[in-house]
Amino acid sequence: MFSKACEYGIKAAIYIAANSNEGKRVSLKGIAKHIDSPEAFTAKILQILARENIVTSVRGINGGFEIESHKLETIFLSDIVKAIDGDNIYKGCGIGLKDCNELHPCPIHDDFKKVRNSLRKLLETTHLKQLALNVHSGTSFLRV
Amino acid sequence: MFSKACEYGIKAAIYIAANSNEGKRVSLKGIAKHIDSPEAFTAKILQILARENIVTSVRGINGGFEIESHKLETIFLSDIVKAIDGDNIYKGCGIGLKDCNELHPCPIHDDFKKVRNSLRKLLETTHLKQLALNVHSGTSFLRV
DNA sequence: TTTAAACAGGATAAATTTATCCGAAATAAA
DNA sequence: TTTATTTCGGATAAATTTATCCTGTTTAAA
């Protein structure tokens, strides 16, 4: 569904969000450990999220990553997916046609439109705060 | 969503189905041309579909690929996707956790379950005959 | 029986994705 | 100011996916 990079990105963002919600900044090392991802690769992904202003990075001692708390409810999964994988997953044609649309549909166009739309809606309405709260309360988990 | 190989596989299967429905056998060359795919790579994918008894291959002059007509309504998109990409796309966890389930859900488990289920249902209820008929009638298209 | 058409499948190459390494830059604390 | 910590970002490597090539086998027709 999503690329590995995107999966790491989603997990990392949720972990950072859960901590930022408590005023805690977290380091790359801590993130990689908690979401069970390769450290250096995760660094690359966090750089993308930082460039896109999804997370804030701070260098030096006691540095790390955080998300401004007022942003927690305005960053949606779609923002993260779009930054890393692009939006083809919920916009493109199911069988990869360049020119697939209502007037010129591929054979599975109508069926896939529903799935893709429900995916898009989900990603565009799920923000980091709700995910972070679930993790924090122990309702859901980020690893194993 | 699907791998390139799987996209080619779906298109090829629909094209073969549309022709088999009219009693016509089609060659690799003809398939690749009509679905706009690389010939040698498409051959590999058709080998997979042949091994899985989804399509029948015939060697030699006038050979090619066909699908037994009685099978057209019993081969579903899920069979093709499963043969090429496996079923992780509509069974696995959205963020790649090994042990994600109701009792131990990832943060996006519930939301994704719906999308994945609708995808699974779609793939498991759409058979080749209906797709082939749409292509044949000009209601939908396989390329460009 | 010879020939040409067509798929099978192993080997290899190209492209992309995933992952690692390392020096540079920034920053807070000693 | 020095030092230790931590992210940044370029280079490189490993793994996977996508794509090509070539030889062998099958088959029908000449």
UniProtKB/TrEMBL annotation, chains A, B:
GO terms for cellular component: cytosol. Coiled coil: none annotated. Pfam families: Rrf2 (PF02082). One of its GO terms (molecular function) is DNA-binding transcription factor activity. InterPro entries: Tscrpt_reg_Rrf2, WH-like_DNA-bd_sf, WH_DNA-bd_sf. SUPFAM superfamilies: Winged helix' DNA-binding domain. This is Rrf2 family transcriptional regulator.
